[in-house]
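Task: encode each sequence below as structure tokens.

Item 1
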Amino acid sequence: MPTWLFEECYSHVGDLAETAALVLGSAQESESSSPEPLAQFIESRLLPLSSQTEVEQKELIQSTWNILSSAEKLVFHKLLTGGLRIGVQRKTVQNALGNLYKIDPAVIAHRMMGKWRPTPEWFRRLRKPVAEKGEPSLPYPFCLAYPVEQPDFASLGEASRWQIEPKWDGIRAQLIRRSGQTFLWSRGEESVGESFPEITESAKHLADGTVLDGEILVWKEKESYPESFGELQKRLGRKKVSQKMVSELPVRFLAYDILEFEHADLREEVTSSRRRLLEEILIQAQGQIHLSPLFPAEDWNEVKSIVQSARERHIEGVMLKDRTSVYRAGRVKRTWWKWKVEPLRIDAVLVYAQAGHGRRSGLFTDYTFSVRDGDQLVPIAKAYSGLSDKEIKELDGWIKKNTREKFGPVRSVPAEKVFELAFDSIRESKRHKAGFALRFPRISRWRRDKLPKDIDTLETVKNLL
């Protein structure tokens, strides 16, 4: 089958596994099942693929297709691509397992952190009522904050009740020092120590059995403020970091919490107590490990002023942490809040659209927007969130009726529909045609009151930078 035809089918169906199953059809006229039990099928046909050459993989996949019905091919493809899943919150699963096995869900959450494989032995340890001594590298489940656009100061009480911290734009991480070893885990449960060797080296000064919660940032030493997240991304995922990169993109770990000290779990201690201990431990910076500062604020007007000046301070906003709260896994209401600065905004025109996937398959939901540069339109951002279901259906109908050209799954449309885009920050980028990259762009509203001639210009974008 020609590639273009398969891509056309894929853009219509919206699911790769289903598209391939439909295209291949059934191996036999009757929809008979594979004679192999599922466990045997996985062990003999699925697991070996990861260690095979491409030629061997192709041969095994094709031979497997020959014994499967169309419905079974769909399941096989889902298993191959890791797509056999449904969206269930991690905390929901942990609560369910905790209820089932009469174990505190916080214990279940801790046991499910880090790298693990669903083996019988792992599952036995997960269900064990008495905690075993875990791996020294094991991080704790992260405590997360709820976003708030405008706090209800009356319900929050006095500002002095809250610990007010900078909301950094870096990588949230736990720095672990146990058994004479150092580990660095991101909030996404990725081990990132190899990418930031100067941080793990600095951690050798910490007492054994210490776990710090904080932020990894590229730090401008002379100016004493962090670089953009885009600069930090240049160091992510690297197994080896050159001395040149260490010199050009120096990093810091700014610690704002301590979860374990001398092997004692401190998460049930209140925030103010943990902060005092953290300050004692980091009274002097240890290499690239520094104490994240607090904002002294007498009232909410001062806090509001800090948020409004966040960009000048090179932060995203502030964190509000109840001084009497303990450290809980997941998002816990009324204890941690993140109050971010108002987003930047521009008006741009829709120029390209692409169909979504999953429940959005068949609908054009991924959009590319342009601003004006003289007489030309220059793509500035892609966005796929912010519209209501009703607006998506309306825009989808217009796109289908007004498609000018097709580029695989992408459709070009007349530059007629204007939208307001919101984004958190902006930086220069040689990878983008416009010369700029927007952080977290999303659709703020459909500007039906504006014409294409009213959109913002590239000069406006430069001024925002």
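Item 2
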Amino acid sequence: MCHHDVRWLPVQRAVIIAAMAQTKTPTTQPKPGRTELIAGPLLILLLVGLGLAFIDRRPDRAFITYRYAQNLAAGHGFVYNTGDPHLVSGVSPLYAALLAAIDPADLPLFGSLLGAAGIALGSAALLAMPSDAKGRPVGAGAAAIMLAFPLLWLTLGLETALWIGLCLAGIALYLRGVPWGTALILALATVLHPETLILAGVLVAAAIVEGRPFDVVPVSLYTVGVLAGLIWALNTFDNPLAFLQIDPTDTLAPNAWVGLGAFFAALFDLSLLWLVLPMLAVPGVLHVHAHPWALVVVGWGLLHVAVLAILFVPVYPWSFAPLVPTFAVMAALGVAWIGQRIPAEQPRWIAVVLAVLLIGGAAGESVVTVLTTSAGRGTDWLALAPAPVLARDREVGAWLQENTPPSAVIGLSTADSLGTGAL
């Protein structure tokens, strides 16, 4: 009997120890949703603060889309000038239709609010992407960095921020196993911005690598949605592909290779503290393979830029918009990697606090630079932003409204001659 007891004593101890460990596990792991509960209110405050800072900026090129929306809402059709179904370069027909559907009294304000909603949607999607407790702080950090990044805020009024928000929402739905939702969101994003086809290809590749079974329903939904948008555009405009045409007179650079240098030069002119972003991204990208959700976001952004570089086409600053969530994810992963390298006896939150101070300082200085246009080292940062509406444009517009009939057509010799009075 004693021999029997001695032989089984280690087993009994192992069972007891395992049971005790199981009872302690829930208390040592983060509660589900705790990161979101903490980060959510802080992200909302950041969103509201930056929204108030940038909401009154009025990009000049956005008013081309506003005119389409105004004519559409008034029943004149999808035209810039009545009777002329010509699509101007750089105008997204779906974005103009969304603006016209609401028919607000203040189109510029509504356009800015729609852009802010796109930024909020994209940040919420990044926050929701990680499904494990270890990845949730990384998702929260990526959401905060995306909110703080100035590019999307500088393009309020354009469709760029809404497009990025829809793309990130599509990725989040894919990662959560909602294929039909992914298909519908990406179809909408593709009609809004045809470059979404790159992201669709990334998700198809990810599904193949993960061994997901082929599902004909979401594929059919996406295909039908994109074809419906294409047929609508073909039946509406003389040249629906004009949206994809690029006017080289107001681009950032003649190609993506030169554009990347100009992009980061303008960013660092806003604040030298933005140098911390690529520094954090280096260790982040080396460990992105350990986070499948992050791999999709980073792969999309890098492939998007690679396609631009291969095509060797002129680029706008917002052509690099997919790099915003890409760098946000890589920088957040870099902060997590640094935190893991801090000895256990030291407070690991120091890495997070330091990153928050640096990125928060960069965002704060960027806001001051934009609002004052005199802070910082110069005005190179203006390369990131579409040209704003100038006071002289408002004056000429007011004069035309008072002294010409609504049906009058004004011809301009150059794109910017309206403000100079050369009519």
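Check on item 2: The chain is about 65% helix and 0% strand. Confidence is low (pLDDT under 50) at residues 1-9, 11-32, 414-423.
End of task.
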